[in-house]
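Posting here for the record, re: adenosine-5'-triphosphate.
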Amino acid sequence: MPDEAATLRLGAALAAGAANGLALHLKGELGSGKTTLARGLIQALGHPGRVKSPTYTLVEPYGLLRLNLYHFDFYRFKDRSEWLSSGLREHFNPESFCIVEWPERAGDLLAAPDLEIHLRYEALGRTATPAAHSVPGAIWLATALSRWRSS
Ligand SMILES: Nc1ncnc2c1ncn2[C@@H]1O[C@H](COP(=O)(O)OP(=O)(O)OP(=O)(O)O)[C@@H](O)[C@H]1O
Ligand SMILES: [Mg+2]
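Prediction output follows.
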């Protein structure tokens, strides 16, 4: 992905198969483009306003037309016990669609996501490496990749 617009397009391509009950983990170093990808996805789902980083709030909720979307950022968790005491676990349920930046900060207490995308710096731009961890995740990824190729 050569520039920010390409990361936004990948996010938008993921909007088609997004559904309540699915979870997306976004991994990668500071500044690798996780929030940018989430912004592309959330705006493609119809959110008209800003998509701000949940770094300080831990979670930003979006009530969208067909989804209860929660955008998390666990960067500030020092260890996985903070995830337990945060009270955020209840948001992960079949009626919500969850996007998580820095999921590794919750350790193995967080269930494997349906889809995971690892963003990495390149000389110019970024690369995105996806991995599906469930059948719905694999279907979602296939839908997104065909959208991405034709976008
Ligand atoms: N494909 C890309 N090529 C070049 N720059 C990009 C690309 N995608 C995003 N960026 C830029 O990278 C910067 C950091 O992006 P972003 O805030 O999304 O990172 P992040 O992974 O969420 O960081 P953090 O770990 O702090 O939450 C932004 O300025 C954004 O425009
Ligand atoms: Mg971010």
